[in-house]
Amino acid sequence: MDAAAAASVARRVAATVRPDIRALSAYAVGHADDGIKLDAMENPYGLPDQVREAIAAAARATPLNRYPAARHDALETAVRAAFGVPDAAALLFGNGSDELISLVIQACCAPGDVVLSPVPSFVMFDLSARFHHARFIGVPLTPDFGFDLPAMLAAIRTHRPKVVFLAVPNNPTGGRWPDEAIEAVLAAAPGLVVIDEAYQPFADGTWMPRAATLENAVVLRTLSKIGLAGLRFGYLAGAPAWIAEIDKLRPPYNVDVLTEAVMLAVLRHKDVLDEQARRLRASRDDLARDLAALPGVTVYPSSANFLLARFSGKMGGNAVHQALKTRKIRVRNFPGGEAALADCLRISLGTPDEHAALIAALRDILA
Ligand code: PMP
């Protein structure tokens, strides 16, 4: 395309695409082909050969020339059994839990309606709200990243949100909000509360047993953090009347035949995923202790498969992030200017060798 044509395209884009979308930056996806990847809460352990064989056999047996079936009955049965979804709860599957976040907002929010969540939290709550012309209200956590219940209740009274998102445990801070605080939000919320349990496999406690009986809440889960981030599968559980409405927005065939086949094969070996999650969780305290022993480093309590650490010594978070990057160790920084996260890095749990390499590198960098 020559320069004149490119300029013409740019003019057409500017005249056609929504100004608020043009002003956004796309969601940043970290990528690394080599080195140590501790930036995206992935499970560092691959699947054992026996499970990979089962997946390969399932994929071979799956016809790709037909659309997925209208219902996923076998997968529903498997998901219910594997993750303790109550019989009376309805289930909705998504292409990752990201898709389900988007569908909930589409189902509930007319333009200008409010989506509310504590901040900092998962950025897609905010982005997805904007994509769908909803207004996002973030309620700051306390300075040490606790749940500010009085501020949440006041914001709910003021803004009457259609949807409240509570990530439990929270990303990127790692804390699990107390059940009584969530209970108080449920009692105050005029609309729907989404309890996002993406990191539940690394925490104590779950709201899933109550998914069918909560009148104004649904429970969201993903397979991404326990070993299947590449597959894109999440699920939403709740009272059938809620799920039936949200299901109307679901693109047909959003869960493809390979995802369904692989999920069925993997869930027959769910004990492997559980064992890996247990191993990761068991390594969390040691890594937290080693990080906290470094000069100028504060580590926040985590119930998830990552730790948030603040680097307030001679080198700030961005400098430490860069120094780790040159050593091919990827962690997550927050360059977006969110004041609460200044100098914070989010470090996903990895293997014991990866933790040892990280701590050695940080000792060197901070020396
Ligand atoms: N919820 C929370 C709280 C998350 O942190 C994430 C991933 N960063 C997601 C949902 C989305 O996960 P996925 O789309 O991979 O299921």
TrEMBL record:
Protein name in the entry: Histidinol-phosphate aminotransferase
Family, per entry: Belongs to the class-II pyridoxal-phosphate-dependent aminotransferase family. Histidinol-phosphate aminotransferase subfamily.
Domain of life: Bacteria
Keyword Transferase: yes
Oligomeric form and interacting partners: Homodimer.
Cofactors demanded by this protein: pyridoxal 5'-phosphate
Pathway entry: Amino-acid biosynthesis; L-histidine biosynthesis; L-histidine from 5-phospho-alpha-D-ribose 1-diphosphate: step 7/9
Originating species: Bordetella bronchialis
Gene that specifies this protein: hisC
EC number: 2.6.1.9
Catalytic activity: L-histidinol phosphate + 2-oxoglutarate = 3-(imidazol-4-yl)-2-oxopropyl phosphate + L-glutamate
N6-(pyridoxal phosphate)lysine PTM sites in chain numbering: 225
Keywords: Amino-acid biosynthesis, Aminotransferase, Histidine biosynthesis, Pyridoxal phosphate, Transferase
Pfam family, one: Aminotran_1_2
NCBIfam families (UniProt xref): hisC
Record CDD domains: AAT_like (cd00609)
Annotated ranges, domain Aminotransferase class I/classII large: 34-361
Keyword Transferase in annotation: yes
